[in-house]
DNA sequence: ATATGTGCAAAGATTTTGCGACCCT
DNA sequence: AGGGTCGCAAAATCTTTGCACATAT
């Protein structure tokens, strides 16, 4: 928890009670919770907390790198007719995606077995980085 | 397009004009479009089409395997405090996620260079399959 | 002929935001 | 003291659904 206070100080963020409880909820969670779930957990300590505060602080934490999104693909559904197995290049800024044919990636190997009970069907690879537009110095990409 | 008619017939789906135009829009799209984008494109051919029809048919296509979702992670934002590099196991049915430490996966190799202009930062691996609960015969998992 | 799909509009779910009161530094 | 945050509620965004009419097989 001291780590959290230090990081807030570094980032110039007031270390409010709400933020501490929210961050602790995230630390303790092993189930990759969403905002609604975190709201429920924070409410156990701060019954008066509002969902808006949870959303705002999640965004603040993300912007400052204190926590991470589980994937770059939350938000609107995105689709493709391409049914052949393939991977994706994903731009971390504008979230544009490009196909990467399966044959282009050498097969994946594990060093240890997966946890018992999980039935693996296939590996999907995402190459994360910056697309040409967002890597260029002058362009801004996603604006949110 | 005949492929599409045949698949509809196989699945017992009426092959309506709206569905043909929507499917064609998906075939021609190289940008992994979302529902709103597809709606715009279908409207060029069928100005009276409704957004509800686009959503309904997207769902129908997904349920019948005619198209795919770009990722299993659309929908609500999901978060993690774990900042160490790691991958995920994802259940295709209930979408529960489990962490997979980075060291457990041997490093990824490409057989060809990535397209020029994309600045790769890291590879993220997702192991897709069925979790213990959803693989078991009696349980149902996600119900939608 | 019949089962299913469609357009419309309202509802539901998820996320953002404006505002005045309040808290952290 | 002062700037940022909080709770509240309204708005914005994304997705689903009920209904009456139209369409595909």
Query: What does the overall shape of chain A look like?
Result: globular
How many helices of chain A?
5
Taking all Cα atoms into account, the compactness measure Rg of chain A is: 19 Å
Given as residue ranges, the uncertain stretches of chain A (5+ residues, pLDDT < 50) are 139-144
Structural class of chain A: alpha+beta
Major β-sheet strand ordering of chain A? 4-3-5
- Which pair of protein chains has the largest interface, and what are the residue counts? A-B, 69 and 69 residues
Strand portion of chain A: 15-25%
Q: Got a strand count of chain A? A: 5
Q: Let me know the CATH homologous superfamily of the largest domain in chain A.
A: Winged helix-like DNA-binding domain superfamily/Winged helix DNA-binding domain
């Amino acid at each position: 928890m001291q780590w959290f206070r230090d990081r807030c100080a570094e980032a110039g963020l007031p270390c409010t009670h709400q933020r501490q409880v929210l961050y602790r909820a995230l630390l303790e969670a092993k189930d990759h919770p969403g905002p609604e779930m975190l709201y429920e957990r924070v409410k156990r300590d701060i019954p008066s907390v509002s969902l808006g505060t949870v959303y705002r602080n999640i965004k603040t934490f993300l912007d400052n790198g204190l926590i991470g999104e589980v994937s770059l693909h939350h938000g609107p559904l995105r689709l493709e007719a391409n049914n052949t197995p393939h991977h994706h290049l994903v731009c971390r800024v504008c979230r544009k995606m490009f196909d990467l044919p399966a044959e282009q990636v050498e097969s994946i190997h594990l060093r240890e077995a997966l946890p018992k009970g999980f039935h693996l069907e296939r590996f999907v690879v995402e190459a994360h980085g910056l697309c040409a537009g967002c890597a260029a110095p002058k362009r801004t990409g996603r604006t949110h």
